[in-house]
C-alpha cells in the first residue's frame, strides 16, 4: 500500500516537471558533468529524495529540540573538523529525506530553527566571520545566509541588501523571526541595486558575500508556466553579465585585505567558474583563496564535482547526500592595485 502511494505521489510530482527546462539542462549538464549528471538529474526531479538541514537559532536555543534531533538519528554537520567552524553554529542533518515542519512567523517570538539546504552553509563558513567585523550580504533575501552568519559571530555591522522589493519583505520578516532586538541595531537593510553598492560604500567592508541571482536549477525544473520557463532560458545567457557586475561592485565595497565569497545554486559553468575566471583575469589585486581543504573535510556529508579551480567548489546532489547544487568561490583583495 505504502509503495503504491509513494509511486502515485512520484507520478504526481513527475507531471509537474517542466520539460522545456529539463531538456535544456540535459543538453548542457550532460556535457559539463558527464556521467554524474544522471544521478544529479534523478535527485533534482524527485523532491521526495530532497533533504532539509536544521540550523538551530542560538538566540532562542532549545535543549529539548537538540535532544529530540539526536533521538531521531540526526547528526551535527562538520563536527568541528573545519579550520573555521564556530561552536555557536549548530546544524543538524538526517541521512533520510525527513523534513521538520516550518515554524510559523509570530511577532515578538523568535523561531528556534531554520530549515535549509545544508550546502548553503559552505559560503557562510568560507567567509570566516569574526566578532566586530563589518560584513555585506549583497543579495540577501530570503535571509538564510545572514541568519547563518549571525550564528557564527557578532559583527560590528551587518548590511543586508536586496534589490527586489517582494523579496526584501521576506528578508525583513526572516530577520525579525530570528534576531533579538539588541542585535537588530547593528543590522542595516537596504533596497539598492547591488551593482551600485561599491560606489555607494567604497572599501567599507571586511567581508562581502555575493550569493548571486542565478539559474535556480531546483526551482526552474518545477516551473508551472512553460512559456515563462522558455523565456527564463532565453534570458539565461544574460545572468553571467549581471553576476560579473555584482562582483565588480562587491570588490569596490571590500577593503584591501578583505575576503569576498561568491555563491550560486546552479550547476552552470557559465555562471560559476567562468564568472570567477573573468574576475581573476581582469583584476591584479584580486587573489584566489584555496578552499580545497573545505571539500576534503566535508566529503562525508557532501559530494563535490571537480571545478578545475583551487578557489572554487561545486556541491552536486547525490544519493543520501541530496544537497546542492551550490557553487562557492573565495577571493581576497590585496593591498596593491
Automatic annotation (TrEMBL):
Tagged with keyword Acetylation:
yes
Residues bound to S-adenosyl-L-methionine are: 139-145, 162, 193, 211
Q: Which Gene3D superfamilies match?
A: 6.20.240.40, Vaccinia Virus protein VP39
Q: Which PROSITE patterns match?
A: SAM_MT_RSMB_NOP
- Keyword line: Acetylation, Methyltransferase, Mitochondrion, RNA-binding, S-adenosyl-L-methionine, Transferase
Active site: which residues?
265
Q: Supply one GO CC term from the record.
A: mitochondrial large ribosomal subunit
Signal peptide per UniProt: none
Q: Which domain of life is it from?
A: Eukaryota
In this chain the SAM-dependent MTase RsmB/NOP-type domain maps to: 44-334
Name any one GO molecular function. RNA binding
Instruction: Report the family membership.
Output: Belongs to the class I-like SAM-binding methyltransferase superfamily. RsmB/NOP family.
Q: What is this protein called?
A: Methyltransferase NSUN3
The coding gene here is NSUN3
